[in-house]
Amino acid sequence: MTGLKQDRGDDDVREQLLASVGEQLGALLSAARALTAASAAQVHPDLQPAAFHIVRWLHAFGPAHAGAIAEGVAMDKSAVSRLIRDLKAVGILRAAPDPEDRRATILSLTPLGENRMKKVFEQKGQVFLQRTAHWRTEELATFAELLRRFNTPPP
Predict the structure, then answer these.
(1) Cα(79)–Cα(62) distance, integer angstroms
(2) What is the chain's Cα-based Rg?
């Protein structure tokens, strides 16, 4: 009987820990959304946060067709088209004919867009550094390993 009580106690503790992990992941996701909104405002104050995903994707992967961008950011093509129009209007994106298919358009960041992204990454890096400045090297290593394990699907 004692073994059963112990097992139930372990189940309760595990359940509470999983609830705590869920709460912390929810807080992390909320903070990430807020940081994305602030980053979008840094790129241009009139931009929707969703536009930032397009700018970030182009910064990471380089010039592309609108369809590739829509697929890369997992957004509807019509929504991406509207956001691209807005980004071009504020000087963050430029469109050029595709040299291999003059009917198609290649989108890329303008120098202004690249400069704004550089500033955004610098600020995001500072936020991360501030939150982890007091952590020991071993704690950072553990955190990185646990995140890697969490983000790796089971076999």
Answers:
(1) 20
(2) 22
Residue 128, pLDDT score: 86
Helix axes 77-89, 49-61, angle to 10 degrees: 90
Contact 78, 84 (CB under 8 A): no
Residue 126 CA from chain centroid, whole number: 16
Helix or strand run (H / E) with residue 12: helix 2-43
How does pLDDT run across 12-63, given as a tens digit for each residue? 899 999 999 999 999 999 988 898 888 889 899 988 889 999 999 999 999 9
Structure tokens at 123: 């600020």
Predicted TM-score (pTM) of this structure: 0.74
Instruction: Report how far residue 22's alpha carbon sits from residue 33's, in angstroms, rounded to the nearest whole number.
Output: 16
